[in-house]
Specification:
Length: 164
């Protein structure tokens, strides 16, 4: 670790090879990193009385407009029952609202409220600051390479799931 920057140089990082012990494998590092990212966002969202899932839902609806609960569940990667609970809490705080779909009265669409738009802007500010902190010392090319590797890993996982 460099005493000045507090950053470990790439040459001295641990070797996360697939034949390493489970706690040193790439997959384990990825899972622990994902947990830490969620914890960091959750901690930064405390002043807004939100967690990452709630903030992601608000951000999605603010950006893309009214959408169905099913689409939100799929986008956020959580179950339909769980998304209903998230929406209930946000609706109680007047950050989102449910409205019947004009084309299909059995379907509810979730839309952002004025208070939700204000909160979405505050979420964006938190996101921008934290992303800058998370990316410190990681260049654009490194981020692009990481993005490529993670996308490839996702494709491989989807194939593995479908083959099961």
């Amino acid at each position: 670790m460099c005493a000045k920057s507090g950053i470990t140089p790439m040459s001295s990082l641990t070797n996360n090879e697939l034949d390493a012990p489970p706690w040193r494998r790439v997959e384990s590092t990825l899972m622990s990193t994902a947990r830490l990212v969620r914890e960091a966002f959750d901690a930064r969202l405390v002043p807004l009385d939100l967690n990452l899932t709630q903030a992601s839902l608000i951000g999605y609806v603010a950006e893309f407009g009214a959408t169905t609960q099913t689409q939100l569940a799929d986008h956020l990667g959580i179950g339909r029952a769980a998304i209903g609970t998230v929406i209930d809490r946000l609706e109680q705080r007047d950050l989102v609202g449910r409205h019947p779909d004009p084309a299909d009265r059995r379907v509810w669409r979730v839309d952002i409220t004025d208070a939700g738009r204000t909160t979405a802007r505050r979420i964006s500010e938190v996101d921008e600051v934290l992303r800058a902190e998370l990316r410190r010392g990681i260049g654009r090319e490194e981020r692009q390479a990481l993005s490529w590797v993670l996308s490839r890993l996702q494709q491989n996982l989807q194939s593995a799931i479908h083959e099961t």
